[in-house]
Amino acid sequence: MLAFATRQKRILVTSDTGRCRHFGDFLEANGQCAGVFLVKQRAPMADVIGTLVLVWAASDADEWRNRIVEIPQP
After folding, report:
1. Least C-beta-crowded within 10 Å: which of 27, 37, 54, 68?
2. Helix, strand, or coil here: 49?
3. Is it the case that residue 67 has pLDDT exceeding 80?
4. What pLDDT, on the 0 to 100 scale, is given for residue 72?
5. CA torsion, points 74, 40, 27, 33, in degrees to nearest 10?
6. What is the pTM of this model?
7. How many domains does the chain have?
8. What torsion, rounded to 10 degrees, do the Cα atoms 48, 49, 53, 54 define?
9. In what order do the strands lie in the sheet with 12-14?
């Protein structure tokens, strides 16, 4: 999924914490990653959607490149 998202220049939104374990290896092997937003499974959906809309409206995708960020922030 990380490779696919990076090729498509899309930030990966996932609740799969297994992706976190592979993020560093993927970044080291490929030199870049489009970024990952990690969502806790029990996070209120309204908060997740609100955060994604805010990110989309107020930032550029390049700001999230090579980063893994938990949303919404605890």
Report:
1. 54
2. helix
3. yes
4. 86
5. -90
6. 0.85
7. 1
8. -40
9. 12-14, 36-39, 68-71
Encoding tokens for residue 57? 């409206």
Rounded Cα–Cα distance for residues 46 and 61 (Å): 22
The SS3 assignment for 54 reads helix
| 8-state DSSP, 55 | H
14 burial level (CB within 10 Å; 0-12, 13-18, 19+)? middle
- Which structural domain range is residue 32 located in? 2-71
**C-alpha gyration radius of the chain:** 12
Backbone angles phi, psi at 41, to 5 degrees: -60, -30
Gap between the terminal Cα atoms of the chain:
25
Q: CA 43, CA 17: separation in Å to the nearest integer?
A: 14
